[in-house]
Amino acid sequence: MIGTFFYYLVCTLKNRAVSAFKRLRRPKYLISALVGFGYLYLVFFRQFFSRPRLARGVPVSLDLDVLPLMETGLALVLLGFVLLPWIWPGRGREGLRFTEAEIQFLFPAPILRRTLIHFRLIKMQLGVLFGVVVLFLVFGRGRFIEHPIYAMVALWVVYSFLALYYMGTNLTQMSLAEHGASGFKRQFWTLTLLAAVVVSIVAWAKWFIPPLPAAETAGISDFSAWFIRATESGPAHYLLLPFQVLVRPAFSPDPVTFLLRLVPAVGIIGLAYLWVIRTDVGFEEASLERARKMASWLEAARSGNRRSPRRAARGVRRPVFKLAPIGFAHTAIFWKNLISAGRLGMLRILPAIVVLGIGLSVVFSSQGGRHELLSTVIGTVAVVMAGFLTLLGPMMLRDDLRSDLLQVDLLKTYPIPGWGVVLGEVLAPAVILAVVEWLLVLIAALVLPSLGKIHPTAFQRLLVGLSAAFLLPCFSLIGVLLQNATALLWPGWVELGRTRRQGIEAMGQRVITMVATILAFVLVEIPAGLIFAVIFFPGFWLLGLTILPVAALIAALVLLGEAGLAIFWLGRLYDKFDVSLEGPGR
Amino acid sequence: MIDAEGLTKTYGSLAAVSDLSFRVEGGEVLGLVGPNGAGKTTTLRCLVGIIPPTQGEIRICGYSLGREPLAAKRNIAFLPDEPRLFEYLTVKEHLQFTARIYGVPDFQVLADVLLEEMELREKADALPAELSRGMKQKLVIACGLLHSPKVLLFDEPLTGLDPIGIRRMKSTILKRAREGAAIIISSHLLHLVEELCDRVLILNHGRKIIHGSLEEIQRSLPELRGDTSLEEMFLRITGHAEDGTVMK
Predict the structure, then answer these.
(1) Is ipTM > 0.85 here?
(2) Which pTM was predicted?
(3) Most-buried pick from A55, A98, A244, B90 (CB within 10 A)?
(4) B50 shares contact with chain A (CB less than 8 Å)
């Protein structure tokens, strides 16, 4: 039977490759593929074809003091990954995801459940090996790590362990959902181990963490030493040990040590495999569905929203605002996209994180200098997040034309002018980004005591915060418009919907689109930047920093004007958009 | 109500629809039939403004689809064979959304009636993923009928419906026609076309082969007996009759 599975997987891979090559007959795919290969060659492959001395560069030789820090840090991250599916059920559910065709052909076939699990394991190994090869290309021949082969093998160990672990967790959670109270009995040892881990973490946090060094006098080495001491104290040492065993081969100095370290790491994978294979649970579709509903209900109950499992599983939440039947039609598209964004997991968590950040900021800002380190951390994170969202947020939030062009048949029947459709589509991501950016700016303005050597006063922080509040949402709006422009201009090159296309030509298309978007973004910002400079520099000489929000506001108005023009232009493009030539699947 | 004049849609050298002219009056049901690839769906998509015709003029309730697209579209409902719904909107929210798009002030009353008519009341808070294909189809129909359109275009309207749904769908179509709507039904189910349609337009290779009521078609083709079914006519006209007869 395993041979049959291999046949299926090999045929699938072969035919996928053939299809990808056939697609290259279309010029735009061919050009994109060439760009993709060029990019890969320049960034990754060149080192394999050039002279070793030139390519190798200077490998990062790991300082002996840094090694334990990296080892422990990675072990800690692994522990986090291991706890994640218990904190947030449903994470890593991919482990038991079968395609519809697989369900249709394999589930009714005379195949043991255990054999199906082996099939998934083989399929997962393909993914694991692909991931390892990609990382090998990235880290290359000693570009970053002295012994990349060791690192790659260790990476395979870690990936394989996590894949197996997530599958086991899935099966265990399904067993609990399926069997109710008797499920707890069946999974006694797993749950006991989990409880022991939780108790150990609580005990460690309460009694064993050593006090932090004083922020005013301590340096990085003091914090490193504190981190090592903290992770070796009490139960933390035993908690992290298995994960240290998994990552340790990566840091081996020689082949013998590497092999000696690899043996226990592979042993842990073996234990995980035995755990998965002995977890006798029916994972057919009905069970999966029940487990999903159970997980959703647990999630809802934890968040204080004790709705019925049936309702919770639907993921239906009340819309942000009530849509009146009469009014601007594009508001309906905005409303729809807000609902769509709100019903995605990320946006459920984001406001909670930001509100928590503001709460902490208010607490710390009222405590004077006592929590300066934490204030600095929170403030810096807020600034970095605001910058990150401004630049990358438009690429991440896709509840606009990038999603709706898949439904363009339906959109085109609506009696809405093109500019109205475009405006309605871009509003949701732009407004979401603006709100989150404003909250982040507020957090930073409240708590950030200093920026490097600059120690701004409260008034100066207010001025800078106000300016950022004017400008950041406009930058995001321009970013969202550019993303939508690429979708309308080159729908074949943009990934429509939420699924990402695979393949070398898709990578090339992504590179081209990203470069074009960045260039366009810079060009669009030039007029606003010039006007800002014209107002700010003489104004600063006369009035000081007070001129900053004025200059920012005028620059923001220029950007909004450009956005307005862009919406009308995109509206015309939308009106001319020929579904039969450019629609999905063309 | 629907007026197509010289409608042509080409893709490079391929003519999907070629110089097609016809008219559908209020209260009339036109059956659009033809073999696969005849140009039926392209015709419907041009009529509803999804794709622009290469040549020709389309008027909906007197409004030119090319020059006054918004006014024309306010009067149309297009009900495709494959239900297209928004993944994250519930049944009720779909109706609310459609009401705002078309500006239906008393939509709540109409929505309740439609939910009842389409047997979707119990699923009002369900997302599309929780609906069967037939229910999705019914939701698309409910959304299409919400703004009381004067022109209705159905592409394979019975796909995915159960026997009760089929009966209701037929009565819905006839009811709208009685109320004065101009209706086009594109379908391969020739008995449905025969049952519901006043006139039939047969397309092949993007060209109009024949257009008229069943009696008119029979009269225009003297080779046919008086009781020939639409299926028999269709097979003969498109050259697929069992005895190989092809009508000129």
Answers:
(1) no
(2) 0.65
(3) B90
(4) yes
